[in-house]
Amino acid sequence: ININNNNEITNNIIEPHVSTQHTPTQQFIKEIEFALRLNMSQRPRESPYDSNPIEIVDRIETTTAEKYRILLVAHRWGYQNNNTTHKQKEQIAMAACLHVAYLTGLPKACGSR
User: Fold this and answer.
1) Parallel/antiparallel/unpaired status of strands 53-54 and 45-46
2) How far is the first Cα of the chain from the last one, in angstroms, to the nearest whole number?
3) Rounded to two decimals, what is the model's pTM?
4) pLDDT of 60-93, one tens digit each?
């Protein structure tokens, strides 16, 4: 999911996985673990998708669009699933925040001090 220059949401960063139950699959678990290992202090930040570095933005607040992206990623990773444990939901929420903050160039993860 990406926001273009016209503030339109596009889906060119994360390819959607076809799933009708939204259960945390092995692929999602790998993505969550990868997101939890992202180095927010790395400068310049390397993109996991191409060779272009991620530019760090000069703000700490997330935009509404970024908040929606966090919700979409968490939903995709199975946050809302009744079979997802509380601990898994905490990990999914943190991973989604890290993932979006890293890719959008925020200096810190959402909610961190």
Assistant:
1) antiparallel
2) 25
3) 0.74
4) 899 999 999 999 999 999 999 888 899 999 999 9
